[in-house]
């Protein structure tokens, strides 16, 4: 199935992450403590917020052409005065660059912005 005119399976197949979580978990049930899989990244890009849609499309095109790796998911720093933060970051490496996917968890992950 296509997203942004890009083949979803090809993009997922380009991921060479060593440690992957369980297959078959949908994005709607992903929480910060779950391992992020390639299909989750593709789903986050596909359902990005309106503000992040252009960056998500560009990153999806890059991931469909090059080998990429999920570097990790972590709670974002910066809200140190808050007891609980619903912001999560997922780091993706592709074409010699690192991209931070800034997601909110409310109750499932939603891509809000991408930084390089």
TrEMBL record:
Domain of life: Bacteria
Stated name of the protein: Uncharacterized protein
Organism per entry: Luteimonas salinilitoris
């Amino acid at each position: 199935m296509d997203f942004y005119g890009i083949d979803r399976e090809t993009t997922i197949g380009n991921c060479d992450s060593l440690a992957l979580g369980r297959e078959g978990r949908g994005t709607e049930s992903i929480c910060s403590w779950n391992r992020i899989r390639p299909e989750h990244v593709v789903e986050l890009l596909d359902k990005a917020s309106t503000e992040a849609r252009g960056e998500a499309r560009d990153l999806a095109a890059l991931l469909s052409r090059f080998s990429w790796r999920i570097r990790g998911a972590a709670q974002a720093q910066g809200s140190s005065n808050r007891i609980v933060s619903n912001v999560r970051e997922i780091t993706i490496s592709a074409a010699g660059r690192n991209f931070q996917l800034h997601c909110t968890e409310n109750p499932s992950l939603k891509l809000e912005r991408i930084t390089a």
